[in-house]
Amino acid sequence: MSNFWNIDVRNLDLNILRSFVTVVETGGVTRAAGILNLTQSAVSMQLKRLEELLAVEVLHRVGRKSVITPAGEQLLGFAKRMVELNDEAFLRLTDQVHVGVIALGVPTDIVFPHIPKVLKRFNAEFPQVKVQLISSFTAELEDQFSKGEIDIILTTEQELDAGGETLKEAALRWIGAPQGKAWQQRPLPFASCQSCNFRSTSFAALDCAGIAWEDVVTTESEVAAEASASADLAVLTRLEGHHPPHLELIEANGQLPDLGTSLVNIYGPH
């Protein structure tokens, strides 16, 4: 007679395993909590219960990031397979296409190049969750987030507010038409969106440097501002790495002021 039924085996909670996998793949509890629609404390408690059950440490904190341990690496493969098998069985045996919807707000000027890759990966890993992408300006996204109209937002701003996490810090750069000359003109022709956070920063930097400027294109359309810059009628400012491919960084060799950096922050459910 087999001793199988006498073996003391404890069951791993799939919800906890899903949280563990999500924390590993997103790099932190805050982002995982937003995706899972849980509070940060709830996710942290799940991870604690997992480690208590297994009697090993699967994650440890390094600064703001959660770093997987060797034991966690071993668990990760099993956890992914268990969660994927659960989701596949559920979807095969039900007609339910989506079990949840997440509204994600992203500033217009940082949608490319990273957000499409994020959406593609998210859809592959969580096909049952529908993502509603909302693209606008940081101030408008913050307003909608405060009203509960958006679940998760990315922002471009100078500081981090309570409840958020900084994803990256990037240089704010002058951009214009390839081999363009607009940046050499005085007053400097500038194109911007009225709601853009970088507008006042750019003007302040020019004033501090004693460079005359002219706001030649004021619009609420990023496309209109970029079209003006592409025609070499004006310059504008974007975070390095997020400027459109038909425009290029201006190497002014000190003839235009340094614009400093900006934070890309994320805010989700508390």
Topology (SSEs and partners):
Elements: H1 14-26, H2 29-36, H3 40-54, E1 59-62, E2 65-68, H4 70-93, E3 100-107, H5 114-125, E4 129-136, H6 138-146, E5 152-157, E6 164-176, E7 188-193, H7 198-208, E8 213-219, H8 222-230, E9 236-239, E10 248-249, E11 261-267
Parallel strand pairs: 3-4, 3-5, 7-8
Antiparallel strand pairs: 1-2, 5-11, 6-9, 6-10, 6-11
CATH secondary-structure class of the domain at 170-261: Alpha Beta
The residue-averaged pLDDT reads: 89
Share of helix among residues?
25-40%
In CATH, what is the homologous superfamily of the domain at 170-261? Periplasmic binding protein-like II
Q: Report on the biggest sheet.
A: 7 strands, mixed
CATH fold node name of the domain at 170-261: D-Maltodextrin-Binding Protein, domain 2
Overall 3D shape: elongated
Distance between the termini: 52 Å
Which CATH-level-2 architecture of the domain at 170-261?
3-Layer(aba) Sandwich
Q: Radius of gyration, Cα only, in angstroms? A: 24 Å
Topology, number of strands: 11
Report the total helices: 8
Strand pairing plus helix content: what structural class?
alpha/beta
The topology string of helices and strands comes to: HHHEEHEHEHEEEHEHEEE
Low-confidence stretches: none
